[in-house]
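Notebook entry, structure prediction.
Reason for the run: the old model in the group folder had no record of what sequence produced it. Starting over properly, with the input documented here first.
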Amino acid sequence: MIGDNCLEALVDTDVLSFLLNEDPIRAPRYEPHIQGRVLCVSFISAAEMWLGAEHRGSGSARRERLDLFLQHYVVLESTPRIGATWAHIRAYTQRHGRSIERQDAWIAATAVALDLPLVIHNAAHFAQVPILRIISEPDS
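New structure, fully documented this time:
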């Protein structure tokens, strides 16, 4: 297992999707942020990628491609520290009237607990989490 100090960035589901699908417009924007880094994904992002495959009724070749793609990332499971950070983020955003979706809170908690920047396209989904470092290349 790779130690926390070796991890360099957490990649969100939207950017993973751009990369997997080789989006000709958006994927290249994120290449400078991910090249040469040890990249991680939250267990939630991995699950969301698999859910997308299930909804599309992807065949075995597509599922195998997704499996191979995810092998290039360290999939981070929840820990007590990430769970406590998740609770803090959910409570903080609810108290301030800017609730965050449960799945997004898990992704944010993983990044915050492990002190990783989050590489994300939809930064607005995480704007209510001021302690989160975001790397984003939004549409113009």
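Summary: The beta strands are 9-11, 39-42, 74-76, 118-119, 134-135.
The old model has been moved to the deprecated folder.
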